């Protein structure tokens, strides 16, 4: 393998997602929004609760994840996981959103993601290098490892193609222009309103089981107190 190939300079990459895996990604998004979030709002911590009735509510959801082959994502197949490579794990965490957008449209269409990546890369470089320096101790402050050069390049990274503040403004403007003010007094992520909607999903269950309803109320009060 040549040095260029080793560093990926001559490797073309297709960021389009396999249709079968894209269907999995779409399912994960829908499942989290319609099943996980309502359960967590009404029965906080149900999955690890000592209340058997509350814990039982999470078991069918766990089984759905297992049936989709998405349980224990970070484990290899011989350890009981699906054996996903880093690419699929990254897709599940939306890390490749920017690259996919560029690959399927243009850099102009991906301007928001590019600005976010430029800011994030500088931040990650600074934080990771700083931690690595502490791990290496005095050796990390010398030129005997790459860390000192990485640390010295962190300020430059934060001003390349525009300072961090410019990238933040770009992201904010482009994101906010696609939104309109929410009706009513509260934002869309106002938890009391979302919790009220989530309770409607479990209304029959709560009405039929006063003990479970009392546990849910107690758990919500504990979460509200922080």
Low-confidence stretches: 1-13
Distance between the termini: 54 Å
What's the gyration radius in Å?
23 Å
Count of all domains: 2
Shape: extended
Q: What structural class do you assign from the helix and strand content?
A: mainly alpha
- The residue-averaged pLDDT reads 81
Helix content: 55-70%
| Strands, total number | 0
Largest sheet: none
Q: How are the elements arranged and paired?
A:
Elements (H helix, E strand, L loop, with lengths): L2 H4 L12 H24 L9 H16 L18 H7 L4 H8 L6 H26 L10 H11 L6 H13 L14 H11 L1 H6 L1 H16 L1
Helix pairs in contact: 2-9, 6-7, 6-8
Question: What do you see in this structure?
Answer:
This protein is mainly α and 226 residues long. The protein has two domains: 15-95 and 185-226, no CATH class; 108-179, Butyryl-CoA Dehydrogenase, subunit A, domain 3 (Up-down Bundle), CATH 1.20.140. It is built from eleven helices and no strands. It has helices spanning 3-6, 19-42, 52-67, 86-92, 97-104, 111-136, 147-157, 164-176, 191-201, 203-208, 210-225. Helix 6 (111-136) packs antiparallel against helix 7 (147-157) and helix 6 (111-136) packs across helix 8. It is extended and about 65 Å long.
